[in-house]
Design a protein that fits this description.
This protein is an alpha+beta fold. It has a domain of 77 residues: Orthogonal Bundle (Arc Repressor Mutant, subunit A). The chain has six helices and four strands. A hairpin with a 2-residue loop joins strand 3 and strand 4. Helix 2 packs across helix 3. The longest helix is centred in the middle third of the chain and has 15 residues.
Length: 156
């Protein structure tokens, strides 16, 4: 192939530029668990303070978290999820379930999430139109980007 073409336009790649860095999803995990203060985040995530500060700034700038002062002297902030941040919670739950199934087969799970109905939550992706459970063999992808097909770039 002659010449270089840009990689496939992709919403997954775009999302990963914001939340794909080490610690970003862990920040979201903690904030969704109600741990919103910097010292709590440092302790529960184990991230170096400078790196955590950078991740928090980036998540705030992207509109995934909001930053609110809870103390003036000394000045201290807490972080809360925006609607965009809350919409990432199912991603976290699905990743956790995948990790429980594939990385902790013979171990106790470190956390269980309970739904408001009182039962343990086992996340499932469903179709919003028919309610059916999503399985790989039931999916068909269609590229919406000019110059691209599902297989890759079209010939110039």
């Amino acid at each position: 192939m002659t010449g270089t073409k840009a990689p496939r336009p992709c919403s997954i790649a775009d999302a990963l530029t914001l939340v794909g860095e080490k610690y970003s999803l862990l920040v979201l995990r903690e904030v969704c668990l109600g741990n919103r203060r910097f010292d709590q985040l440092v302790r529960n995530i184990g991230a170096p303070r400078d790196i955590l500060a950078t991740r928090l700034r980036r998540l705030v700038d992207a509109g995934i978290l909001t930053k609110r002062a809870y103390s003036e002297r000394p000045q201290r902030f807490e972080y809360r999820p925006t609607q965009a941040g809350l919409e990432l919670e199912p991603v976290l739950l699905t990743l956790m379930a995948w990790g429980d199934r594939h990385l902790r087969e013979n171990e106790d799970r470190p956390m269980v999430v309970e739904h408001s109905c009182g039962n343990e939550l086992l996340p499932v992706v469903t179709c919003s139109a028919c309610g059916g459970t999503v399985a790989h063999q039931d999916l068909t992808s269609h590229s919406q980007t000019p110059g691209w097909t599902v297989k890759g770039p079209t010939a110039a």
